[in-house]
Amino acid sequence: MKRVGVMASYPARRDTLIHAAASVAAQVDRLTIVLNQYDEVPSQVSQALPDNVRFVLPKTDLKDVGKFSVSVGADDLVFLCDDDILYPDDYCSHLAGAWERYKELRAVIGVHGIIYSDFFDGDPRSRLVHLFTGALEADTFVNQLGTGTVVCAGYQMPPLKWMRSSAGFVDLRFAVHAERNGYPRICLNRGAEWMRQLETKTSLFETVTAQWPPNVTAEAQEIAGFRFLPLGAPEELACRRGSETQT
Predict the structure, then answer these.
(1) Integer CA distances (angstroms), 160 to 34, 107, 130, 157, 164, in order
(2) Which long-range contacts (CB under 8 A, 24 or more apart) does 48-53 make?
(3) Given strand 113-116, what is the order of strands in its sheet?
(4) Which domains does the chain have, with CATH numbers?
(5) Distance of CA 54 to CAs 41, 45, 47, 116, 222, Å?
(6) β-bridge pairing 196-197 and 85-86
(7) Which residues contact 10 (CB under 8 A, 6 or more apart)?
(8) CA–CA separation, 20 vs 199, rounded Å?
(9) pTM of the model
């Protein structure tokens, strides 16, 4: 099972891209970076990164949807990454181990998790957010994962056609895809500051995600609330499912 990383970026993030990509590239067999709004690969970027990094220049600006435009194998272990996160040296091994541990649940694994209110009406304040920079004591089922902190199998990846209209809301669209296909979302335990946010001048949250159009709110309601979360702790359900498959 190959470990492949995917990332999307654009010119305003050139400096953080180098740091983010370098922190994860050594942990995967291949890292593909989709360079939105670029006419060519900047030498500053290509020379700073190892040989297992390849670049894609899309014909149109895919924004964060670019992460889902990269072809992967069904059996690949896919790490969805962001260009403004500094990943620790044991990041991929930690997430890969968790994906294997919960394989019987067909779960997707992440570090930034969100649980929506059962009565979510589009107000971002009515969400419980487990920030990837903060501590979490135990693995926890969530409604949604931040796709800059996710690992899943290639077969669990949504097709680009499904994701194409979700720029600024890819985390939500990914969560709906997972819910419809029976892939629980698990947010992993970790210590505070295990992962670090790199400082940027621009943010999709500030320009797009902070504003919830009615159609996006309706999409969130398809996964929102505790009623969509499995009963019991992830470890308990994995052990139970494992025992069932062995009998």
Answers:
(1) 13, 20, 27, 9, 6
(2) 48/18, 48/22, 49/18, 49/21, 49/22, 49/25, 50/22, 50/25, 50/26, 52/25, 52/28, 53/21, 53/25
(3) 127-130, 113-116, 144-145
(4) 3-246 (3.90.550.10)
(5) 10, 11, 12, 36, 36
(6) antiparallel
(7) 35, 36, 37, 38, 61, 63
(8) 11
(9) 0.94
The tally of CA atoms less than 13 A away on the side-chain side of residue 229 is 20
* Structure tokens that stand for 27 in this block: 């942990």
Do residues 1 and 76 touch, judged by C-beta distance below 8 A?
yes
Phi, psi for 19 (deg, rounded to 5) = -70, -45
Q: Which amino acid is at 82?
A: D
Token readout for 113 is 């998790």
| pLDDT tens per residue across all 247 residues of the chain | 899 999 999 999 999 999 999 999 999 999 999 999 999 999 999 999 999 999 999 999 999 999 999 999 999 999 999 999 999 999 999 999 999 999 999 999 999 999 999 999 988 889 999 999 999 999 999 999 999 999 999 999 999 999 999 999 999 999 999 999 999 999 999 999 999 999 987 655 455 555 678 999 999 999 999 999 999 999 999 988 777 766 5
Using the structure block, give the residue that is written with the tokens 């992962």. Answer: 195
Rounded distance, CA 1 to CA 79, Å?
A: 13
Distance CA(240)–CA(245), nearest Å, equals: 9
